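Repro:
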Amino acid sequence: MTIQENIPLAEHTTFKIGGPARFFCRVSDEDELIKAVRFATEKKIDFFVLGGGSNLLISDNGFGGLVIKNEIKGIKYVDDRVIASAGEMWDDLVAWSVEKGLYGLENLSAIPGTVGASPVQNIGAYGVEVSNTIESVRVFDAVRAEFIDLSNVDCTFGYRDSIFKHQKNRYIVTRVVFKLNKAGGINTSYKELADYFKTKKPGSIPSLAEVRQAVIDIRWGKLPDWKLWGTAGSFFKNPIVSIQQCIELRQKYPDLPSFPDKDGTVKIPLGWILDKVCNLKGLCMGNACVYENQALVVVTKRGSSADEVVRLTNEIRKVVREKTSLEIEAEVEWVN
């Protein structure tokens, strides 16, 4: 493990934005991770762990502590369990599981980032959340300075939420254990997937590989090309509201879609509100824009700054609040 200084962070994020890290290192095993955390402790500086950089907006001023790039690798299948190290790319794991005929992750295809970020964000798409398949998460507890295994229950998963978001920098994920098997079934209940197969394969049951390809086709049909744009994908979470709030919104916007959620709440598709109610597609602040094909996505042109993204997303929040009284929450993490 080598500690470097003043390393630009823009190249390590999908937004392609961010000033320098005061200190930067790459760790390829758990021993190196311990040394990195110890370095930060001895220097009395903050640290954060970087995976694929796909859910981060880093300040133009950079980060004044230590950035630890998690590059711990390895995937194996033992007794219906997939054990994947945190530094593996998420979509590589999904492709691997589909090739092995293992059910459970195929609806989560084409999501950028690393395995280590998947339980942190409780990533979800097309009717599936990763928490449905996670059995346990191995972490380094930076407070107790030891490795522990957190069960699915211990992780307190919620919608795009987990214990890791509420105790930042305490638990550093080093590997995740997924309960997958070859006797599962596919899930094409999500409307876009159902419509896709009605058109492509009416009356037949799609294979694992076909479900994965369908998800990839649908995602890339509405998301920007990562090679051309800086982006973190969906910037905001879908609001979860009470039934009464949903009724009140429907009185004002009768066509508003909604979906039953847990504990009698209702999930509102924010993309619909941003597009149909707020008319925000294509709105720009400098070089930061709301993507024209999907209003939930913020994209950046070459030369954009974190400040422009912040100004744009603050304007989005303001317009949504004025039109609907909803307070929306960012899915993307702010680092400064």
